Amino acid sequence: MKTNWITTALVAVGAGLLFSCGSAEKSSDSSDNQTTTVQKGQSGVADEESAKNVVQVAIASADHSTLVAAVTQAELVDALSNAGPFTVFAPINAAFDALPAGTVDNLMKNENKEQLQDILQYHVYVGVIRENLIRDGMTLNQVNGANVTLGKQGDQITVNGAKVLGSVTAANGIVYVIDQVLLPK
């Protein structure tokens, strides 16, 4: 059987393009002449023109540095940088500070990553729930599989009793700033 060299060449070029399109960063260590390739996900895409996604909104807020550190430790940055849409309930730093002493430090340990992921996923709903859609007593099924209950009395919105202090529209959803950390049961 004769091999069609054009087909072979096209497959080789296609494979080369496929592997070169991934977002990767190479670094070399001169001490041992090894090259390491670090794969980056959606969060590694450089885009200075589009609106900020939910992670970038949190990063831009000085009041959310603890949340950003937790999302990074839990390895959820790429997931939350994707298209979504997401409704994120984002506790401020003071909300983390209000937890019992040592709680945040304990959750940030590698051996507690699954528990940290569960707590953070409890703050995320897949879909966008804008303020005008919120009804008192409304229940949302969060990413971790547990439910939160929204409250609305006049202009005041709550989630499991935590007050919504404000909201920011993001490219891939909406971020509600809240005054408490939501803990799944």
Automatic annotation (TrEMBL):
<dbReference type="InterPro" id="IPR050904">
    <property type="entry name" value="Adhesion/Biosynth-related"/>
</dbReference>
<feature type="compositionally biased region" description="Polar residues">
    <location>
        <begin position="30"/>
        <end position="42"/>
    </location>
</feature>
<protein>
    <submittedName>
        <fullName>Fasciclin domain-containing protein</fullName>
    </submittedName>
</protein>
<keyword id="KW-0732">Signal</keyword>
<dbReference type="Pfam" id="PF02469">
    <property type="entry name" value="Fasciclin"/>
</dbReference>
<feature type="region of interest" description="Disordered">
    <location>
        <begin position="25"/>
        <end position="45"/>
    </location>
</feature>
<feature type="signal peptide">
    <location>
        <begin position="1"/>
        <end position="26"/>
    </location>
</feature>
<dbReference type="InterPro" id="IPR036378">
    <property type="entry name" value="FAS1_dom_sf"/>
</dbReference>
<feature type="domain" description="FAS1">
    <location>
        <begin position="51"/>
        <end position="182"/>
    </location>
</feature>
<dbReference type="InterPro" id="IPR000782">
    <property type="entry name" value="FAS1_domain"/>
</dbReference>
